[in-house]
Design brief:
By secondary structure, the chain is mainly alpha-helical. The protein is built from 15 helices and 4 strands. The protein has helices at about 1-20, 20-25, 40-50, 50-60, 70-80, 85-110, 115-125, 130-145, 150-155, 165-170, 180-200, 210-220, 240-250, 250-255, 265-275, and strands at about 220-225, 230, 280, 285-290. The N and C termini lie far apart (about 70 Å).
Length: about 325
């Protein structure tokens, strides 16, 4: 009987840690102050007080499902949905400035489940210094959803489905990640609506140049590496520059990123360069590595996937000049 009660409690804690970690931390008796949603500034201030309870929950349960309880995530989603574009952007900036990109990623994961994918993409754009694009995205999203708005006229007059065109352009970069493809597809269409509205074009005809501009605006561009597509780690980056960086990075960079479970750093790089392993875009200069068999490489000592990122400051082999030979 005692064992059964213990097992039931253990299962409950594990389930809550996965679904609603901050509520579990609060239920355990730790002081978790309520968040203030009255303005972006008050939210940012009250959110800062969550850092310690969040870190305690992560250390105790090994999970990090964001800084909000599930109920608070729903509440903030409603606040965001009702806010004007400037207030939405202010919330987005407050989150990224207060948390930094890494922690903000955990934060925004909660909003995907609340149907607020546009908030996630806008947050990524702000983190990349693309605030005007984030603003345009939020405006296009509003145009699409508001009754009688200009975006509704564009959609009403639309003569062809844009999805196949977008899928052809981006799906290769986000293979194995249908959620990211769907998230970006909608964001691209929202940005396209804003661009068409500003151009005074309500015809609904597909402008392929404008659509490509919207694709680049959301993704930052697509590059090809070893015959497959990935999201460009820096906006406007060309294939040659990324190829050169990949060729020159030192194995120790893998350890600097946390290391891969069960695979030597040198072997990870070698298999990436030969195509045995493949990078798979997760958005915002983050890539998981497909092992060529049945899944993704895991981070050393963790159950989560190893995250590979581009960093121009990574240790690299010296650049060889034309005609120069190695000694």
């Amino acid at each position: 009987v005692v064992y059964g009660l213990y097992q039931a409690r253990f299962d409950y804690v594990q389930d809550m840690a996965n679904k609603d970690m901050m509520q579990l931390v609060s239920d355990s008796g730790m002081d978790v102050a309520p968040l203030d949603f009255t303005s972006p500034d008050s939210f940012s201030t009250s959110r800062a007080a969550r850092q310690m309870p969040h870190d305690t929950g992560y250390a105790t349960y090994g999970k990090s499902q964001g800084f909000l309880t599930d109920a608070e995530a729903s509440q903030l989603a409603m606040v965001f949905d009702a806010a004007d574009d400037n207030t939405k952007l202010a919330y987005t900036q407050a989150i990224y400035e207060g948390l930094g990109p890494a922690n903000a990623t955990f934060f925004y994961e909660q909003f995907k489940e609340k149907g607020m994918g546009v908030f996630v993409v806008a947050g990524q754009l702000v983190a990349q210094g693309q605030t005007p694009v984030a603003q345009a995205l939020l405006s296009g999203n509003r145009y699409r959803r508001e009754s009688g708005a200009a975006g509704k006229e564009i959609l009403k007059n639309q003569k062809s489905d844009f999805d196949p065109e977008i899928t052809t352009a981006i799906a290769g970069a986000y293979r194995y990640n249908g959620q990211q493809t769907a998230l970006y597809t909608q964001a691209i269409k929202d940005l396209y609506i804003d661009m068409s509205t500003k151009a005074g074009d309500f015809s609904g005809d597909m402008d392929t140049d404008r659509l490509q501009e919207a694709i680049n605006g959301i993704t930052g561009g697509i590059v090809e590496y070893n015959g497959y597509q990935i999201e460009a780690p820096e906006r406007g980056m060309e294939n040659k520059r990324f190829d050169n960086w990949m060729e020159r990075i030192e194995p120790e960079y893998i350890s600097m990123l946390g290391g891969v479970e069960g695979v030597d750093d040198s072997l990870v790089l070698e298999r990436l360069k030969t195509g045995t392993y493949q990078l798979v875009s997760q958005g915002n200069n983050q890539y998981v590595i497909n092992n060529g068999l049945d899944g993704f490489l895991k981070a050393e000592g963790a159950e989560r996937p190893f995250i590979f990122t581009y960093n121009p400051e990574a240790p690299v082999k010296p650049q060889m000049l034309s005609g120069q030979r190695r000694r």
